[in-house]
Amino acid sequence: MSNLPWNTSEPLLEVKGLQAWYAAAQALFDVSLQIRQGEVVALMGRNGAGKSTTMKTIMAMMSRRAGQVRFMGQDISAWPTHDIASSGLGFVPEDRRIFTALTVSENLLVGRQGARAWPDGTPAPYWTVEQLFELFPNLRDMQQRLGSQMSGGEQQMLTVARSLMGNPYLVLLDEPSEGVAPVIVEQMAHMILELKARGVSILLSEQNLHFAELVCDRAYVLEKGVIQYEGTMAELDANESVRRAYLSV
Ligand SMILES: Nc1ncnc2c1ncn2[C@@H]1O[C@H](COP(=O)(O)OP(=O)(O)OP(=O)(O)O)[C@@H](O)[C@H]1O
């Protein structure tokens, strides 16, 4: 048995009353959301709605913030970012922070963390480099390539793969489909479904309803730093007024 103070019937991630500021400008207002084990949840909203800020606040990357973040039964609100990441909460930022002077293989090794277990002692999702190459076949063909010589979409894949090297329980994925070629978007959708099948939970920031519908169970919709709607993907799809008011469709 592990010593995780978490019962799997409780949410894996529970965010309550999150607020955040850029200097004097408040960017998040009382944002609350939950992700249960095995769920893929969309965080939707237009440019500037606050999706990235929500993720950065969960990861303690906003210097001025308030509210509570519980992950696997622990209050992580005051933890530093690196402790949050090493507890099994992965974050793939939108700006693709790979090491451009390192090769694909070296970038992956930088992300390596040990294997994890669920509270009942069963193994949590674990990724070998070979399994990651199965998930991202393009990366297998460019193992010795420098990060600086990869396309934006390839860098995006490498960022996701490196995060999976940390064997996270939950990944915050910030707009993985934004600005990448359609063939890569397709691979991203396949990758998210594969993660879900392996038991990894995901919070996916997304503007594209069609992409979110392919892979997500539920959605929260943000506008101006406020959660305006929450529901299943089917409910959101059927709700034309919410779609028109807060999404680009
Ligand atoms: N570094 C920053 N300094 C000041 N204001 C910022 C900064 N980053 C974001 N903001 C503001 O905070 C608000 C939320 O932005 P955020 O990036 O979280 O939105 P988003 O939903 O992720 O949109 P996008 O898809 O454009 O990333 C916006 O009004 C934005 O202008």
UniProtKB/TrEMBL annotation:
<keyword id="KW-0813">Transport</keyword>
<keyword id="KW-0067">ATP-binding</keyword>
<dbReference type="InterPro" id="IPR017871">
    <property type="entry name" value="ABC_transporter-like_CS"/>
</dbReference>
<keyword id="KW-0472">Membrane</keyword>
<keyword id="KW-0029">Amino-acid transport</keyword>
<keyword id="KW-1003">Cell membrane</keyword>
<feature type="domain" description="ABC transporter">
    <location>
        <begin position="13"/>
        <end position="249"/>
    </location>
</feature>
<dbReference type="InterPro" id="IPR003439">
    <property type="entry name" value="ABC_transporter-like_ATP-bd"/>
</dbReference>
<comment type="similarity">
    <text>Belongs to the ABC transporter superfamily.</text>
</comment>
<dbReference type="GO" id="GO:0005524">
    <property type="term" value="F:ATP binding"/>
</dbReference>
<dbReference type="InterPro" id="IPR003593">
    <property type="entry name" value="AAA+_ATPase"/>
</dbReference>
<dbReference type="InterPro" id="IPR052156">
    <property type="entry name" value="BCAA_Transport_ATP-bd_LivF"/>
</dbReference>
<protein>
    <submittedName>
        <fullName>ABC transporter ATP-binding protein</fullName>
    </submittedName>
</protein>
<keyword id="KW-0547">Nucleotide-binding</keyword>
<dbReference type="Pfam" id="PF00005">
    <property type="entry name" value="ABC_tran"/>
</dbReference>
<dbReference type="InterPro" id="IPR027417">
    <property type="entry name" value="P-loop_NTPase"/>
</dbReference>
